[in-house]
Structure formats: structure tokens, C-alpha cells
Amino acid sequence: MSNSAQASASSRIAALLDENSFVEVGAYITARTTDFNMTEQETPADGVVTGYGTIEGCLVYVYSQDASVLGGSMGEMHAKKISNIYSMAMKMGAPVIGLIDCAGLRLQEATDALAGFGQVYLNQTMASGVIPQISAIFGTCGGGMAVSAAITDFTFMEDKSAKLFVNAPNALKGNYTSKCDTSSAAFQSAEAGLVDFTGDEASILGQIRTLVSILPSNNEDDMSYGECQDDLNRISGELAGCAGDTALALSIISDNNFFMEVKKNYDPSMVTGFIRLNGTTVGCVANRSEVYENGEKTAEYEPVLSAKGCDKAADFINFCDSFNIPVLSLVNVKGYKASKCTEKLIAKAAGRLTYAYANASVPKVTVIVKDALGSAYLTMGSKSIGADVVYAWENAAIGMMDPAEAVKIMYAKEIEAAEDSVALINEKTAQYAALQSSALAAARRGYIDDIIKAGETRQRVIAAFEMLFTKREDRPSKKHGTV
């Protein structure tokens, strides 16, 4: 039985929107097909409640599927109601939020339902990059509805009973639900990377409200600015110890320590999320090699780029660029992940991330917090591919590769002949680091703009984005890129 028995489509909308702000549209619409004795079926609102309201005073459009009506299945009129909401949202430049509990296509309506589903896909595609689209899964989201959720910008999923799948777990050869529940929130967030946020119903609705409050309403009118209550020049001495846990660093940098992480469970070595700087929403991408909770290290990762991490970051940067959200990058990377599975995907994924950074025309600020080595650094928002301002912490290393490894290659014969090879390696490593891999060496060549103390990061980044506020940057005329 669907969990809509506990929370109806209408009550979810009431919990999501500002009190008494919801206005229903199409309340009297029902199924119009007469095949298969459908005239005897009760289909109030044809299984989906649609309308508009506000979140913290900002206009949003909502549809909420009701599994108590033919399983929440999508028929012709059900689909038309959703398409109508999209049409209104596009005219008004307001986000669309879908609260999903759908058994899929309504079999009794066959091609009419199929055509309606296709129209929803088309509307979502036209809205992509114009208005934010959010989906939240509370029951079943199977087959074609899973594709619809994937088209949206952010997907939330209830973590106990919600199901998201194209093919059900038991339909996969050699698999069954108890072996690997591929439809679960845990799988879809950590393995598939389709789900951005998980939690119980109340927390999901609260997270959606928070997300809507910090995002622009559309790609032209930015209502995401707020008044900053934090000290713009706040010095954070503890930042120097956060080079590994950049999620923690971002929360320290942000106004009032606000940080909303996106796809937290999908390849945690790459961090994506939103912070606020001087009241402005900023999208953040960061390499993470450590995770700390309550002062204790709970996880450790290689400081390298993986295929999953690159795809995660590329999608996030593309969203930010579409909605004119500035991008801040914290860099700590030594290369690419080396494994057989990754090797099949890493070149394409790294190419997508490189393209996303280079193609984005929003203000871009990069801070090198530890290591920035090789072409993996170039990919992570370097000045070479278009970063507007690049800072480095004092002990950052910037270069082609780890100095010790470079020395072993360059001085292989000398090291082999030396009486004290360790001393020679140490001597040459220090020399190479000073000449080719230090923040000072990079600054002298113009590859970074300034060397800053870690504790000053907040004030320096805020000042950089203030300077870049009116940035305008043209791109070659073309229909779209192909990467």
C-alpha cells in the first residue's frame, strides 16, 4: 500500500507551502476515457493535485500525485494537468515542484496516456535551464516517471518506503529485492547518483523549502539575494586544518555557516553544494580527502578525480551556469583515480568537467587549499580554463606532479650513483618544490593571483565575487556544445 495513506497529496502540498497560500488549478478534472469500464471508476482530480502557492513569499507551482486514485497512474488528463502547470510556470518564471507517488502509465488509456507522458517530457525539456525543477519521491516512481524525475534539476527521496526505478529490482536478471534493492533511496543516492537528498517526509519538505529559498526563480530574474547577518571580514583560524574536509571548510566560509550539500552520498570525494556569501547564493565544488564528524575522522579518500566525481561536479556547474549562480572551487587534487573500472570512464568524465568549467560564463573563483598537480588541477577550475580569480593558501603545492616523484625521474642516474640517495632526493625535492611547485612559483608566473592565509579566505572570496558581480563574457555563436 502506498504511503499516501499516511499523507495525502493535498496534505503534502499544505506542509510544503506557506500557510493558506495554495490555490488549486483543475480540481474538477477527471479521466475522460470510456474504455474498460472507466466510466464506473472514480478518478477525483484524475489522481494529481495541481496548483500554485508560495514558499517564503516566492511563487512556486506544484503537482502532487495521489496513489489512492488508480495507484497515482498517469493518464491523459493527469498528464495534461501537469503540462498545464509547466506552461503557467514558464510564463511566470517560477519553479515547478513535483511530489511523486505514481504507478506509471495508466494501462486503460494506453496511447493517450503515452502521448500525455511525452508532452510532460517535452515541457520539462523546454523548462530546463529556464526555471528550477524539483522532484520529490514519496511512493513509487517507476518506468517513465523515473525518466521524468531524472530530467529535473534536483531529486529528493523518502528513505524508507519510496521506490525509484526504470526496471524493478526483481525484473533484473539474477537480481531480486533482498539481494540488491536497486529501487531504494540508498542505492539511487549512493550508487546511481540520481537522488540529491534523502530523509523522512518532514525533512524532505523542509529541505525543499530551504533549496527554493536560496535559488533564483528563473534564469533572468534573480530573487535569491538576502541580507547578510554575518561579519564579511570574519577571520577563521580553524580553516587551515580543513584542507582535507572541504565540506567543513565551506560551512566555515559561508554566512552563518550555512551549507547545503548536493548529492552528498554520491562519491563523497567530490563535494558539491550551496553556500551564502554576503547574502548571495554561491555554488561550490571541492575535492575532499577527509571527513570529520564531532572532531573525529570518519572517512578518508585519495585526493584524486574519479569518473563519478567529475560527472557529479559537471552537472552541478552546468546548473549554476544556467541560473547565473557564481561558482567557488576549493582544490586539493593530485591526479586521476587509477583503477580498471574508472579507466573506462575517466577520460570522458574529466573532459565533461573541464568543458563545464571552461564553458561556464558566471563568476568563477578558485582557492587552492593544498595540492594542485597535473592536468587534474587544470580540470578543477584553473586560470588556464577560465577562472576569473585564483588564490592559493600559503603551503599549497602547484605543479606538474609531486616534487619527490618528479625528482626520482629527473635525477634517476644521479640517485642510483649517490652514496646517500635519500639525502640527494630530499635536497632535489626541496629545490624542485621551490622552483616549480610552490604557490610562490605559480604566482610569479601569473597562474595564481595571490597567496592568502587560510583564515582570510572568507573575506577575500567575498571581495572577489563583489568585484565580479557585473561580469559579462561572450561565447562563440553556436547552437550548443557537444561534450
Look at the structure and give the mean pLDDT.
90
Within CATH, the superfamily of the largest domain carries the name: 2-enoyl-CoA Hydratase, Chain A, domain 1
**Distinct helical segment count:** 16
Helix content: 25-40%
CATH class designation of the largest domain: Alpha Beta
Largest β-sheet summary: 8 strands, mixed
Number of strands: 20
Helix and strand composition category:
alpha/beta
What is the CA-CA span between the terminal residues?
Answer: 43 Å
Keywords: Transferase
Organism: Enterocloster lavalensis
Pfam families: Carboxyl_trans
Domain CoA carboxyltransferase C-terminal: 231-467
How is this structure best described in words?
This is Acetyl-CoA carboxylase, carboxyltransferase component. It comes from Enterocloster lavalensis. Keywords: Transferase. GO terms for molecular function: propionyl-CoA carboxylase activity; transferase activity. This protein folds into 2 domains: 212 residues, 2-enoyl-CoA Hydratase, Chain A, domain 1; 173 residues, 2-enoyl-CoA Hydratase, Chain A, domain 1 (Alpha-Beta Complex), CATH 3.90.226.10. The protein starts with 8 loop residues before the first helix and ends in a 16-residue tail after the last helix. The strands form 4 sheets. Strands 1, 2, 3, 4, 5, 6, 7 and 8 form an 8-stranded mixed beta sheet that branches. Strands 9, 10, 11, 15, 17, 18, 19 and 20 form an 8-stranded mixed beta sheet that branches. It is built from 16 helices and 20 strands. It is elongated and about 95 Å long. It is α/β, with parallel strands linked by helices and 483 residues long. α2 packs parallel to α3.
